């Protein structure tokens, strides 16, 4: 399974004074099993793009292939698209509505028309994936949970639909560092066990650099830069001109370069940055000895 | 004497008659006028509850809180307390009252019974202070998160407080909005306002001149940033992170590099390395 | 998109009409509506249309904005027109099978239709030329005297202010929740009426929870900003009754007098007009 987006165009409020071009011929390819990152300024079109992948928004023109199926074609069933693509919105805990965590997580799977027994198995699996104990949480009201637990329950609701592509829009926004780390552990687990496509929308460049295989940069409804994180984040000036930051490790090295240090590589992790700085200090020391 | 004095504060959320959860368990903090204090902690550590005790939105179950000499439990002085210690909340949408920016900023002064002409002047000044004057006639829902949060700050500034408590003001913002709000916060501090910032972003806390780390309703660590961040392992044990510069310095030291102890910000690190 | 909906549809401007005291504008609008019901013949409408036309002209609000307000209730106008046309007895004009259109019916249909159109345009002129905030201030001030009999004037005005502020937020919230549930396979479009109503639960519960959370947050934020009810509160924009308001009030009285006395005036003028006409005819 792969995703291919071809010349996707979407206009908001066509024909009104508020008309704006949200997607302007977007082309995108994500291969099977890849973990893609989607970054860009607020309003650059990231959310609009992923809502198309799930069939919630319809394009003005262009195509989206999930595997061999063109989901923009006429006659494609929406349930079929939603079975394949799981979309987790920002602050997903606001979508919880059932009396119990169990019922809420089962809502998606049951909408797909599967049996009660299978739904139960899926709820068990999904809760274990997000790290909520079935015995402890299944029968509790989702509204009694802590912020981090609510978020996990909401994520379980999407995972239980067993999507082949899972899109997460700012899944850690507003959480404390511990819950954020839990969510990233969960993503790693899904990746290892399910081998599905993951797409992460995030403003946290450090997270994107750490977990993604491929990064897409959006601006004004277009994809303006794409490639592996090491390539994308080596273009510090370009990203900054688009109002985006760098992963902290890359930012550090970028700042050193601006202060005159000669450092060819751009690190993505703190470990790599430590190596680079260590080597830099060594050379500096040698130079000062030579003088 | 500090502008905010918290003496042995105890606060409990009551679920019902018998069951209650102790959110704050014997906290004593003295905050000096004109200082910039960051309060950090996990969710549920009691940091937000502490903030709400500062301007009498919550009242102590034990101990006492004094704001500029006024006891928060004293009903007579309630409005004095709230006028002196303003508060900016997390959700930028849910704290703006009026459908027009300038009317929202006027809300506080109107409540204080300030004469109409002076309100106009205050609204103007407050919006200028947060660089939102040109948006004064706009509707809040047309603004970005960072802009809304700046309007909320203006609404507090217009009440001419001595101290502003920011309760995770950047948690729901994108990086751009976050830096806008931090910028304004630092500016207000430079203008002499006492700032108390509740956050879990360590890089923001590094800008403060004092860091208080809370855990399970108690003060776990308290001191200048350089001193607090020196104990990186203890901070990590509380499920919190340390700023990137602190972490880098720590790892470089482990490799035998001699990095000075005071480095907690990236700028400082770069300056040291590239000197 | 759902957020494009504008509430209260204010048309910004600096005209004489825009600057009038909102209290006066509310009263004038009420007077105009009452006057419409006092109109007895088309001559009265000519007076009303002329008056409305002058005010619209002075306000500089483009006519299409007025007509936009009509679009929303177009069906009701048509319904009123048709109902009156067919349901009124009298001299038959045309017969279409079992239904007959009478002269009286047609007259009445135009009469009622016109009343409705003028009513809508008149009241939309109020919202088009008055900021929502001013409107609530005006309401609060007008209802003030009724506080003595227990009417919570300030609270009502505050509720309106908050509603105006949060309707766009709640619409956006609804949009978000709906999309999130659609992504979980919820279906809002198909099925029987009962089924569709049941399918709304996944939207309504989160929306209710959201509204509750907003209310809680807002109450706390208002308290933190020293809100303690209407007592002792001042206003950024104090309402002041100016000379132009007095002039407008006098003109409104004149208008009302014209409408009430229109038939008498016409009757008094009739002989003069008739003799004028015959003199004119004789001269020719």
Key features?
heterotrimer, B: 275 residues, alpha/beta, Rossmann fold, six-stranded mixed sheet, four-stranded antiparallel sheet, 11 helices, 10 strands, 23% strand, C: 284 residues, mainly alpha, two-stranded antiparallel sheet, 2 strands, flat, disordered N terminus
Please summarize what this structure is:
Chain A has helices spanning 46-53, 78-84, 101-111, 116-130, 134-137, 147-159, 177-194, 205-211, 229-232, 236-241, 248-258, 270-290, and strands spanning 3-12, 20-30, 35-40, 61-66, 69-70, 85-88, 165-169, 197-201, 214-219, 222-227. Chain A has 291 residues and is an alpha/beta fold.
Secondary structure layout plus pairing:
The complex is a heterotrimer of chains A (291), B (275) and C (284).
Chain A: E1 3-12, E2 20-30, E3 35-40, H1 46-53, E4 61-66, E5 69-70, H2 78-84, E6 85-88, H3 101-111, H4 116-130, H5 134-137, H6 147-159, E7 165-169, H7 177-194, E8 197-201, H8 205-211, E9 214-219, E10 222-227, H9 229-232, H10 236-241, H11 248-258, H12 270-290
Parallel strand pairs in A: 3-8, 3-9, 6-7, 7-8
Antiparallel strand pairs in A: 1-2, 1-4, 4-5, 9-10
Helix pairs in contact in A: 3-4, 3-6, 4-6, 11-12
Chain B: E1 4-14, E2 20-31, E3 36-40, H1 47-54, E4 62-67, E5 70-71, H2 78-84, E6 85-88, H3 101-112, H4 116-129, H5 145-157, E7 163-167, H6 175-190, E8 194-199, H7 202-205, E9 210-215, E10 218-223, H8 225-229, H9 232-237, H10 244-254, H11 266-273
Parallel strand pairs in B: 3-8, 3-9, 6-7, 7-8
Antiparallel strand pairs in B: 1-2, 1-4, 4-5, 9-10
Chain C: H1 16-19, H2 22-38, H3 42-59, H4 63-72, H5 74-87, E1 92-96, E2 99-102, H6 103-129, H7 132-143, H8 153-183, H9 193-199, H10 201-224, H11 243-283
Antiparallel strand pairs in C: 1-2
Largest sheet of chain A: 6 strands, mixed
Q: Taking strands numbered 1, 2, ... along the chain, how are they ordered across the largest sheet of chain A?
A: 6-7-8-3-9-10
Helical content of chain B stands at: 25-40%
Question: Could you report the average pLDDT of chain A, rounded to the nearest whole number?
Answer: 91
Strand content of chain B: 15-25%
Task: Tell the overall outline of chain B.
Answer: globular
Tally of DSSP helical segments of chain A: 12
**Superfamily (CATH H level) name of the largest domain in chain A:** P-loop containing nucleotide triphosphate hydrolases
The overall strand count of chain A is 10
* CATH fold field value of the largest domain in chain A: Rossmann fold
**Helix/strand order of chain B, N-terminal first:** EEEHEEHEHHHEHEHEEHHHH
Helix and strand composition category of chain A: alpha/beta
> Reading side by side through the largest sheet of chain B, how are the strands ordered?
6-7-8-3-9-10
Oligomer: heterotrimer
Judging by the overall fold, what is the CATH architecture of chain B?
3-Layer(aba) Sandwich
Distance between the termini of chain A: 60 Å
Number of strands of chain B: 10
N-to-C series of helices and strands of chain A: EEEHEEHEHHHHEHEHEEHHHH
Largest sheet of chain B: 6 strands, mixed
| Outline of chain A | globular
């Amino acid at each position: 399974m792969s995703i291919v987006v071809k010349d996707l165009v979407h206009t908001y409020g066509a024909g009104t004074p508020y008309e704006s071009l949200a997607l302007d011929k977007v082309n995108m390819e994500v291969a099977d099993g890849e973990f893609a990152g989607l970054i860009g300024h607020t309003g650059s079109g990231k959310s609009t793009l992923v809502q198309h992948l799930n069939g919630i928004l319809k394009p003005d023109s262009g195509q989206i292939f999930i595997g061999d199926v063109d989901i923009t074609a006429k006659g494609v069933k929406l349930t079929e698209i939603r079975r394949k693509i799981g979309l987790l919105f920002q602050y997903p805990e606001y979508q919880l509505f059932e009396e119990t965590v169990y019922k809420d997580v089962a809502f998606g799977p049951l909408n797909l028309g599967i049996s009660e027994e299978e739904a139960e198995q899926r709820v068990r699996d999904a809760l274990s994936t997000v790290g909520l104990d079935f015995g402890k949480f299944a029968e509790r009201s989702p509204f009694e949970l802590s912020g981090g637990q609510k978020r996990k329950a909401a994520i379980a609701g999407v995972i239980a639909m067993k999507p082949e592509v899972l899109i997460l829009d700012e899944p850690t926004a507003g959480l404390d560092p511990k819950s954020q780390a839990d969510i990233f552990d969960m993503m790693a687990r899904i990746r290892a066990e399910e081998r599905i496509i993951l797409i992460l929308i995030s403003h946290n460049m450090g997270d994107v650099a750490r977990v993604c295989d491929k990064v897409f940069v959006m601006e004004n409804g277009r994809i303006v830069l794409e490639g592996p994180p090491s390539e994308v984040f080596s273009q510090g000036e370009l990203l900054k001109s688009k109002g985006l930051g760098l992963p902290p490790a890359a930012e550090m090295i970028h700042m050193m370069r601006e202060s005159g240090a000669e450092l060819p590589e751009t690190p993505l992790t703190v470990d790599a940055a430590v190596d680079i700085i260590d080597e830099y200090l060594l050379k500096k020391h040698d130079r000062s000895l030579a003088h | 004497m500090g502008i905010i004095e918290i003496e042995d504060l105890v606060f409990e959320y009551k679920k019902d008659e018998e069951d209650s959860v102790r959110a704050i368990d014997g906290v004593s903090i003295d905050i000096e006028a004109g200082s910039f204090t960051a309060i950090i902690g996990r969710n549920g550590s009691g940091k937000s509850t502490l903030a709400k005790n500062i301007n009498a939105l919550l009242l102590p179950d034990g101990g006492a809180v004094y704001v500029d000499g006024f006891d928060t439990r004293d009903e007579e002085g309630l409005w004095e307390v709230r006028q002196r210690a303003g508060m900016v909340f997390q959700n930028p949408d849910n704290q703006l009252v009026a459908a027009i920016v300038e009317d929202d900023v006027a809300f506080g002064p109107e409540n204080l019974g300030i004469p109409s002409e002076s309100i106009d002047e205050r609204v103007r000044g407050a919006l200028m202070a947060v660089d939102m004057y040109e948006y004064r006639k706009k509707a809040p829902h047309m603004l970005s998160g960072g802009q809304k949060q700046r309007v909320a700050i203006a609404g507090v500034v217009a009440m001419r407080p001595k101290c502003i408590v920011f309760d995770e003001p950047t948690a729901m913002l994108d990086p751009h909005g976050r830096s806008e709000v931090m910028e304004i916060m630092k500016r207000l501090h430079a203008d002499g306002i006492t700032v108390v910032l509740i956050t879990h972003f360590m890089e923001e806390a590094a800008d403060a001149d004092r860091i208080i780390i809370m855990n399970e309703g108690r003060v776990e660590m308290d001191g200048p940033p350089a001193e607090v961040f020196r104990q990186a392992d203890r901070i990590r044990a509380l499920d919190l992170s340390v700023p990137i510069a602190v972490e880098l310095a720590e790892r470089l030291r482990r490799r035998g590099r001699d990095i000075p102890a005071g480095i907690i910000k990236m700028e400082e690190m770069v300056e040291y390395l590239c000197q | 998109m759902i957020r494009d909906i504008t509430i209260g549809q204010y048309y910004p401007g600096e005209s004489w009409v825009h600057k009038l005291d909102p209290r006066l504008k509310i009263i004038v609008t009420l007077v105009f509506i009452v006057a419409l019901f006092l109109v007895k013949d088309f001559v009265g409408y000519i007076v009303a249309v002329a008056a409305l036309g002058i005010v619209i002209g002075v306000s500089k609000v483009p006519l299409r904005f007025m007509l936009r307000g009509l679009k929303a209730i177009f069906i009701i106008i048509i319904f009123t027109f048709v109902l009156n046309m067919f349901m009124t007895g009298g001299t038959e004009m045309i017969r279409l099978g079992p239904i007959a259109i009478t002269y009286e019916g047609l007259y009445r249909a135009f009469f009622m239709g016109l009343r409705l159109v003028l009513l809508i345009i008149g009241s939309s002129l109020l919202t088009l030329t008055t900021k929502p905030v001013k409107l609530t201030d005006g309401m609060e001030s007008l209802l003030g005297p009724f506080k003595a009999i227990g009417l919570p004037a300030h609270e009502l005005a505050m509720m309106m202010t908050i509603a105006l502020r949060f309707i766009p937020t709640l619409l956006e919230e609804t949009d978000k929740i709906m999309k999130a549930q659609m992504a979980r396979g919820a279906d809002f479009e198909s099925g029987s009426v009962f089924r569709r109503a049941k399918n709304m639960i996944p939207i309504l519960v989160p929306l209710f929870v959201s509204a509750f959370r907003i209310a809680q947050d807002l109450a706390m934020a208002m308290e933190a900003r020293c809100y303690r009810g209407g007592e002792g509160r001042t206003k950024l924009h104090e309402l002041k009754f100016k000379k132009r308001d007095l002039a407008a009030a006098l003109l409104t009285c004149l208008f009302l007098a014209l409408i009430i006395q229109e038939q008498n005036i016409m009757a008094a003028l009739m002989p003069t007009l008739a003799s004028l006409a015959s003199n004119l005819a004789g001269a020719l």
